[in-house]
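Troubleshooting log. The previous structure file for this entry was overwritten by mistake, so regenerating from the original sequence record. Sequence copied from the archived sheet and checked twice against the printout by T.R.
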Amino acid sequence: MSTIMKQEFGTLRDGRDVSLYHICNSRGTILSVCTYGGAVQSLKTKGKQGEYIDIVLGYGDIGTYEKEDKFIGALIGRCANRIAKGRFSLNGREYQLECNDGANHLHGGSRTGFHKQLWDAEITADGLKLTYTSPAGEGNYPGTLHVTVWYDVTESDAVTIRYQAVSDADTICNLTNHTYFNLNGYDSGSVLNHTIQLFADAYTESDAESLPDGKIISVDGTPMDLRQPTRIGDHIDDDFDQLRWGHGYDHNWVIRWAPCNPPVTDWTGKGLCKMARAVGDTSGITLTAYTSQPGVQFYSGNYLDGTPLGKQGTAFTRRSGFCLEAQYFPNALAHPAFDQPILRKGDVWKAETVYQLSITEK
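Regenerated output below.
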């Protein structure tokens, strides 16, 4: 069982207090989570030389979290990724959401998204429990949505994120986490020399606004084929429409649902599948990711330039971190053939993502 310690982390502009919780296992791995945005602020684990390395981008003060707009480490909701024109229809009624990504809605909205909310926290036997109630009409989403998220670290260095949500009316629910990883250390610069592997045979083709057009495309013969361990920088700037439009990798891959042995017991009842594996080229730190969700957005930090200075004054520049966001497919509401992020009144929605840490010596 992990040990959890609480630390005060300052106050928001409106005077509310923010806390930072440190979740530790006996091996010395420490996951730090901020109650503002439910953000993963730090993740320290051993590299191949035995040194402790903090492998996630984050900030050392709450003021910077309030003003940053790159979703650094945060919990994302009500709907992760993009909704075209910010519009969707549910039960015959049209809803208009904030368009905070050009002409489209992204990650729940700029101020009403879960990344900008103060979550309640409780230390439990199941890890750090965060709760937030999103009232009906917040961000113009229907229904009052009650969300619970548990963070924990196992004795085998598996970081677990477990989500649960219930609504008093039919609504949209697509929750994820937006941690930026740099397995050589948050202050080590580019991730282009990291190795990435995605356990996916297809991706959802997107247009120039990063909106899927409904087509599921095989990765065969394209720079999107990351089925074998591949240096992130090998094809990221290839002359390929998907990569030119996304300024690099910023796409949803369709996870191959195949038997695997996840490092934790399946909590959702849906099953867990391996979605990705990444290795830091200098640290040897390896991250193997599992999820109950159908898709993973692999984002190579193409728009990090201009982000406020991070921990210890570190400049987070373009491609200095990558994300593995387990989710429903982007803009799924416009494509009925995709799994739909619709939560019906009274149903309990569950999802789980696991990041298993280990060392690769070579």
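Residues 154 and 242 are 37 Å apart (CA to CA). Archived copy saved in two places this time.
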